[in-house]
Amino acid sequence: MTTKEAARPVSAPAPRPPVTAKQAKRRASLRHLPLHVICILVGATIVVPLLFGILGGFKDNGQLVTRPFGLPDPWVFENYADMLVSSGFWRPLGNSIFIAVATTLLVVLASALAAFVFARFAFRGRELLFTLFSIGLMFPFAVAILPLYVVLREMDLLDNPLGVILPQAAFGLPMTIIILRGFFRDIPGSVEEAAILDGCTPWGFFWRILLPMARPALATVSVLAVVSSWNNFMLPLVVFNDPSMWTLPLGVQQFQGQYAADTARILAYVTLAIVPSIAFYALAERHLTSGLTSGATKG
Amino acid sequence: MRGRRRNGPVLALFLLPALLLFVGLVLGPIVLGLYTSFFSWNGFGGLPTQFVGLANFTRLWSDDVFLGDLQRGLILIVLSVGIQLPVSLGLALLVNQPIRGRSVYRVLFFAPYVLSEVITAVLFTMLLSPNNGLVNNLLGLLPGDVQQTWLANPDTVLYAVFVVVSWKYFGFHMVLYLAARQSIPQELTEAASSDGANAWQVFRHVTLPLLGPTIRISIFLSVIGTIQLFDLVWVLTGGGPVHGSETMAVTLFQYGFKRFEVGYASAISVTMFLICLVFALVYQRFVLRRDLEGAMTVLGAAK
């Protein structure tokens, strides 16, 4: 490891004096001290803003001025309590969950079907079609937002959850198809042959054998789809006028606009809105990081 | 395999949902956007009719806000590639060291990435607020007058945006670098150091070249992401004050959804796409080529 070598003069390859385990340990922890200091400083830039939000929600606006640091005194539970009994938090939360789940189901199912065809069948125009989907990776969401809005308006999908679900699924297709295709391709042909010999139809093979085998890949693409749907802001912003449709990012943003002077209340809302993200992260951390890194480190 | 030919209709059926979605809601709108960029249109009443040729595009080159967008985008890209990514790389190497609690640090550093840009922006609006925001309160403890109206001052706002963007995304890049660093076999660095290389030399001549492909991809993602930056800026500043933090996506949103100059806004989005496309092609041609070579051959061979 690099630091181990840094401590040893390179010009002296002579055998090192024997070091007891205890000494080595102490030396290591001394050497690591600056590293810990850096880590703690960086960690503080993340923890402090979050703590500011969490604790700020327990203060009132007067306390935010008089006691900007430190614990609330007295603890004010009103901000959180008000939020938790009003529909201003639960409604957007429910909408976000519904839209994320529907988007994920749709994009994963449609992509899995297409990826299955791309991975395991040869037909004319296959590569062309696959390239067409890959090109979709090049289209950032912002580029399409205007015409997309016009299309959705003509389809009468404004102020309709489908107006967000369908485009999100459509824009998620390229990435999902590419990941799943790679995975489906790695499943040995002998498995498929055995299934066909046993009388499986293509659908039967896909549904009963391929999908169950691809569970890890499905989990990864699902987690990515949930996160991108959960965090999407631009599309819900233009599609939903009706406050009862708002998703969580939209709700937070509108709330901030509405109660601009009531900092403590906004902090309470923000803190509550962070909780589901962090909870999901805790549950799906492995899939999330593996999904994000798989694209960038292979090849 | 036998019976493949009869699968034609089934395959078509399998492809249908994805194709419908993709053509209807990705390709269709893109083509429509390209079409409307040649018209003067307020976005209402059927297809646009007032053809203006390239007027929308030539207007871009005399639009100070748009030219400013390009300049601000460039500043953000330079800052990201020059500061944010090297810091992420340093931290990745740091949490790769066998120090106590490194897994805690890893998880913690990545945490901001899972928050939405909107939540991040609202939180930082509060932190950077001129009255009783935490940042100014902390700076108030220092001697001198270093407090600022960070988001209301055209001179500081872009840098404030950069800090918030970095806060949210450095963990993402760190995780990419970390994964790449962990895939470097330990024998390589060990061999280099037993040959007498010092820590810096091992990093410079072994680790860094092997991280190359990942670094190049991460620069690519960072640049494309910066060009498209919207949510965070929209919530944090709305592009203001006096366009001080406006990005291309914010400008196109303003024209498209606030002023109903849909034709002109479409021209901005087409230009934005072209910038991304040209960057992607040039970058792939000259920078990523070597990295992709292996992957491309595999793709071709597997036909």
From TrEMBL, chain A:
Tree of life domain: Bacteria
UniProt main location, coarse: membrane
Keyword Membrane on entry: yes
ABC transmembrane type-1 domain location: 93-284
Keywords: Cell membrane, Membrane, Transmembrane, Transmembrane helix, Transport
Bilayer topology term: Multi-pass membrane protein
Chain residue ranges for the region called Disordered: 1-22
Keyword Cell membrane assigned: yes
Pfam families, per database record: BPD_transp_1
GO biological process, one term: transmembrane transport
Cellular component annotations (GO), alphabetically ordered: plasma membrane
Location of this chain's protein in the cell: Cell membrane
Regions crossing the membrane: 35-58, 97-121, 128-152, 164-184, 217-240, 266-284
InterPro entries: MetI-like, MetI-like_sf
Record family assignment: Belongs to the binding-protein-dependent transport system permease family.
Protein's name in the database: Sugar ABC transporter permease
Organism this protein belongs to: Virgisporangium aliadipatigenens
Record lineage: Bacteria, Bacillati, Actinomycetota, Actinomycetes, Micromonosporales
UniProtKB/TrEMBL annotation, chain B:
Pfam families reported for this sequence: BPD_transp_1
Gene3D superfamilies: MetI-like (1.10.3720.10)
Alphabetized UniProt keyword annotations: Cell membrane, Membrane, Transmembrane, Transmembrane helix, Transport
Topology of this chain in the membrane: Multi-pass membrane protein
GO CC terms, sorted: plasma membrane
Subcellular localization: Cell membrane
GO biological process, one term: transmembrane transport
InterPro entries listed in its UniProt record: ABC_transporter_permease, MetI-like, MetI-like_sf
Keyword Lipid biosynthesis: no
Sequence ranges assigned to domain ABC transmembrane type-1 in this UniProt record: 70-283
Annotated TM spans: 74-95, 107-128, 157-179, 219-242, 262-283
Family in the record: Belongs to the binding-protein-dependent transport system permease family.
Name of protein: Sugar ABC transporter permease
